[in-house]
Design a protein that fits this description.
The chain contains four helices and no strands. By secondary structure, the protein is mostly helical.
Length: 96
């Protein structure tokens, strides 16, 4: 049957996908706000952080990275989507 928590979870997943797709389109069109601007990263982080492992298990995000920044939003800014058409920096600083 239909349940409110499952529907809300599906809606949140669709919101994440649409937000990331909008970012990918902007990056393709030449935006230099990469990997994700704070205005997008923070709200997504606030929505997904309470169940972060569940979102990772479903393929939305990669495992957390080690951020050099000490700002509260640093984890959000460096948590990259599991799949991205944008080349991602590696720990050595080169794109993969």
């Amino acid at each position: 049957g239909w349940s409110v928590p499952a529907a809300a979870d599906d809606l949140l997943g669709a919101t994440i996908e649409r937000s990331l797709l909008a970012h990918y389109v902007a990056a393709f069109l030449g935006s230099t706000a990469c990997p994700l601007p704070e205005e997008l990263a923070r709200p997504l982080w606030e929505l997904t952080a309470p169940q972060a492992q569940s979102w990772r298990d479903r393929g939305y995000f990669r495992p957390p990275c080690r951020c050099r920044s000490t700002s509260p939003g640093a984890t959000a800014s460096c948590s990259m989507p599991a799949t991205s058409p944008i080349p991602q920096p590696t720990e050595s600083g080169t794109a993969q």
